[in-house]
Amino acid sequence: MEQEQLQETPHGDGNLKAAPDPGYGGGNGGCIAPNGTLPCGWLGRLSRELHWSFVLAVVAVYGACQGVGSSFGSVAAGYYWKDVQRVQPAASQFYQGVVNVPWVVKPLWGLFTDVVPVAGYRRRPYLLLAGVMGVSSMLTLALRRTPAIVPALVAFTTQAAGAAIADVVVDAMVAQNSISHPPLAADMQSLCGYCSSAGALVGYSISGLVVHAIGSQGALGLLSIPSVLVFSAGILVKEERAKDFEYNQVHKKFYEAVESMWATLKCPQVWRPCVYMFLMFVLSPDIQGGLFYWYTDSSTGLAFSEGFIGLIYSIGSVGSLLGVLLYQNMLKDYPFRGLLLWGQLLACLSGMIDLVLVTRLNLRLGMPDYLFAVMDNSVSQLIGQLKWLPLLVLCSKLCPVGIEGTFFALLMSIQNLGLLMSAWWGGLLLHALGVTRTEFGNLWVAVLARNAMRLLPLAFLFLVPRSDQNSTILPAEMLPGDGGSAGDVGQGSSGVIEFSVLRGDENGEVVEAEEEELELTPLMEKI
């Protein structure tokens, strides 16, 4: 069983890393913090130097909302569309693709939180808004007997938008603290990774049991609890109020941000890898909806119970952790193109495990369905991490100085758009092959077609740089000069962070605008 899931946690320089990542702890399985101290001392240090409310915000967003909420919610939502709304697998995939749209427009949320303070605050109001959106949407689904499809879709999308907004806010908080407290950058990365890892394991472990006990609607109602924690973090988070903010300059800041990102995207070293990343996801249709219906169908499927579905996902998340450890300890110094080549080939081969399960060849080999399904999901999650982590490193190296966080959010949105289209394309494939709630005769054809299409991105590998993961990809004119480090670029004497606006010259090359050409406007004050 394969499950496409992209989780994000902030990297210290404003970029993102895949979560969960136990490799931060030195390969010790997360028992010891990166600096060798026990977790209590490590968390105490973060609380003392960054304020305990920051730690609470990370735990609420990455541990509760993204960790427990995303894993728990994915199982509950699958059963909701299947058993409550009783839609076909293709429709279920289409609806779940729509729900992910707020993650596609993630840079928009980032721009709002950075340049549009509310009552002088840039973080607190948006966390409060995210909490309200999550609580109201999930309670609406739980308390209404059987809401129509459109109201249900609006509720799911609202909850996803709240989670995306909360994610962007904490991303910005980690980025700012990494600039003001560089020695704590690794500790903050570890905190995000551990919270997301532990949350996902807890969420998957209890999801099936809760759905079995109180139904999918009741389980979705419980998803309001993580949003309550996010709301509480918004109340308690420490933030200095910005004074004399010029709201009439907001449009200018938006313009500068968009101009900078567009100029960067026109650079060949940037747009070529972006095209590959988009095609890699689009050309691999997601048919998880059809497989989920088959796993849980009691007549012609495998008739897996809710509890066992949760167990499969929880064990699969362990496979994901093993993939992170393997990458951190053995593969992080290899060239991008070679890693992506072998990752794509292994993804194609691992997809054949689904084919063995769907055609029931595993029974001829003497392997029961439940054991084979657990192995299938674990291997798929492991290989998925081996594909995903090099892409994250590549994306982090495509971000120009001054707009790292916003541009990385844009790159993540490109990949999320690819995943959304993959879900829709997979739904069309299931519909064309006649895979329904009760008819799975052609499901093996969908699995075979998906695996074959996973070879297509290999034709576009030439778009990926040959360099290794420790080299620089951006052209020299987009890198910090000799006069300062990357962390110093874009900071003026007034203690604010500014955009370094890029433009194209007459030859199409990306250069930085001169001061007399465009006056820089402060983007965000340091907290």
From TrEMBL:
Residue ranges of the TM segments = 54-81, 126-143, 149-170, 191-214, 220-237, 274-295, 307-327, 339-358, 407-431
Name any GO cellular component annotation. Answer: membrane
Q: What is its main location?
A: membrane
Q: What is the membrane topology here?
A: Multi-pass membrane protein
InterPro entries for the chain: BT1 (IPR039309), FBT (IPR004324), MFS_trans_sf (IPR036259)
Top-level taxon in the UniProt lineage: Eukaryota
Gene3D superfamilies hit by this protein: MFS general substrate transporter like domains
Q: Where is this region: Disordered?
A: 1-20
Q: Name one Pfam family in it.
A: BT1
Subcellular localization is given as: Membrane
Q: Which UniProt keywords apply?
A: Membrane, Transmembrane, Transmembrane helix, Transport
Family (UniProt): Belongs to the major facilitator superfamily. Folate-biopterin transporter (TC 2.A.71) family.
Q: Which NCBIfam families match?
A: fbt (TIGR00788)
Protein name (record): Folate-biopterin transporter 2
